[in-house]
Write a structure and sequence with these properties.
280 residues, alpha/beta, 8 strands, disordered N terminus
Amino acid sequence: MKSDHRLPLRRAVLRLATGLGAATAVGLVVADPGTSPARRPAGPAAGAAGSQAAALRTRPLAYRLRPMTGHTPPRYRPAAPPVRTRPFEQLADIGHAMVLTFDDGPDPLYTPHILDTLREYDVRAMFFLCGEMANDNRDLVRRIADEGHTVGNHTWTHPLVTKLSRAGVTDELGRTSDVIEEITGAAPLWYRAPYGAWNRNSFEIGAAMGMEPMAWTVDTLDWTVPGTDTIVRRVRQGAGPGVVVLSHDAGGNRSQSVAALRRYLPHLLDDGYRLTVPRR
């Protein structure tokens, strides 16, 4: 816009601000809604605004800001993903890389050992948390997030989602996302249905909450307690570019899962795999 067009436009805006009241003009340029409007320094008076503007500046303006900020998300979130008809089972275009995932936690007995091993090798993983476990182990949730791992939603109580109503699915996923966001400051962007049981309701509701569905390529079946050697063999035989490995850090005795990770992780790295997490 040319400079000779700016002055008439600016005068028109100032005249409009005067007519509608200076409080409205202040409300349109507020950048930090957390700052009390009453303490915000007053801008230059607009010509004839005079005593009217001074009087308006003495009035509380918070009620004028509520309609503008009351429904604004507290932070940036990606746009809602499309409604899928099946979950991601492996990830393409990530090169010679794999994704390690752990379900049902966090557990105060086993999760710290898994985190210690991942930190030792400077590896990031995905943790799909149950809301009730997250709520009871908030410090562990913070540690997972602070150490750079991806925090996912695994419902609140680990139910069979296909047996729930839409309201039930919404409650299970919604409560879990809420508590994760309360603890970490960010809502989860991925979710996993317990037992790998997906249906249209879960795809639609998960997408509406901004989450993508993540399944797996290799199931270690560690929850059956098959032995550490068996878990290690399943991971190494199933390794490949884009593979997603399912293990557990809670929901039972996970000492074999802890021991297996310490054995297969260095082998995967020696084989040239990069252990990573998906980006959105």
